[in-house]
Specification:
353 residues, alpha/beta, three-stranded parallel beta sheet, 12 strands, 41% helix
């Protein structure tokens, strides 16, 4: 989810153009192309090459940094993407606003490799499992440096400890930042209660003077480089950071956290729907699912792919594949346009405090 590879985007765009001739707009009617819009650094680039080699379908690949950047582009229809990979709550919002079309699962037979529990999770934002195919999932937790933090880390409360002033990294994401405060206060991360929202805002404002930076992708790099003691991070990024810096550890706080899932969806304006479904089917193959997990380190819902992981520590990792019954977890849901705007206004008040 979470880091841009502009060169990769340009490379695959160039590949599509050189393979078909003309500019991107003129190629949208061609048959051997699929326009994919995904989070940065969220797929093994070799998979895109393999897909083209096997199918003859060129991949025009573009990237975004947040759901909120992606959504208005899809809503406006300015670019005719065939395949997008939003998060749970954003998928529900896109369904509610009639921006998606149903997937023809006859063209995606490999969907059977996705575990039943993940289809059940997806029901929270895609009732009936008609619009989305689970891609990756995970939790949000605290990454901490064991050489810089000398006390147990088991609660969101440590992110308000003055002892770690200028050593705390928070997500620059309205839903994730408010989730931390809401769970710490014992509220649902999907609350729309005004008193609870105001209390969460005030808590985040109180924390602001302790925060070194509000970041997204940079949490990973800063923690690897020992530039901070504590950071809010996605579980998939935590696995990668531990590979790079063994002094780092990850914990799901006792108050609970977000259980998130990103899934493939097909926008209403897609001109190459069958190609998009072929791409989803390819991604759901066990060998491709394994290859992708090894590259991005985000938890895969593909059961046969997980079985291919040879490293037992990773295959049985409580970070990558936690026992979900042991934690207080919630899936983010769409709050509605008005509530989203209000939450964004509250977040601006936090950032400008």
């Amino acid at each position: 989810m979470r880091k841009r590879l502009l060169l990769l985007s340009l490379f695959f765009l160039a590949s599509a153009l050189s393979g078909c001739g003309g500019d991107a707009a003129s190629q949208s009617s061609g048959d051997n192309v699929v326009y994919v819009y995904n989070w940065g650094e969220y797929i093994d680039p070799e998979i895109l090459t393999m897909f083209t080699e096997e199918t003859g379908i060129q991949v025009v690949y573009d990237e975004y940094e947040t759901n909120e950047i992606m959504y208005p582009k899809i809503k406006a229809g300015a670019v005719n993407y065939d395949l997008v990979c939003p998060s749970d709550y954003m998928i529900k919002k896109m369904i509610d606003n009639d921006l998606l079309q149903e997937i023809n699962f006859d063209n995606v037979p490999n969907y059977v490799n996705i575990g039943d529990e993940y289809w059940t999770m997806a029901e929270d934002y895609d009732p009936g499992n008609r619009y989305a195919v689970p891609y990756v999932w995970g939790t949000v937790g605290i990454l901490y440096n064991k050489t810089m933090v000398d006390e147990p880390v088991d609660s969101w409360s440590i992110l308000w400890n003055p002892k770690y002033k200028d050593e705390i990294l928070m997500q620059d994401s309205v839903r994730d930042a408010f989730m931390v405060a809401e769970r710490y206060l014992g509220y649902s991360m999907n609350t729309t209660d005004e008193d609870e929202l105001q209390a969460s805002k005030k808590l985040l404002q109180q924390q602001k003077e302790l925060v070194q930076a509000y970041v997204i992708d940079q949490v990973r790099d800063k923690m690897i480089g020992n530039e901070a003691a504590l950071g809010v991070i996605y579980s998939g990024e935590a696995i990668f950071t531990q590979r790079e810096n063994p002094d780092l550890d990850y914990v799901i706080p006792k108050e609970g956290t977000a259980l998130w899932m990103d899934s493939w969806v097909i926008p209403k304006g897609a001109k190459h729907k069958e190609n998009a479904e072929k791409f989803i089917n390819f991604i759901c193959r066990p060998d491709i699912g394994y290859l992708n997990f090894d590259y991005i380190t985000y938890s895969t819902p593909n059961i046969p792919a997980r079985d291919l992981i040879e490293d037992e520590d990773i295959r049985n990792s409580t970070i990558a594949f936690p026992d979900l019954s042991q934690y207080e977890l919630e899936v983010q849901v769409s709050l509605g346009e008005e509530a989203d705007r209000h939450l964004s206004d509250l977040w601006r008040e936090v950032k400008s405090y």
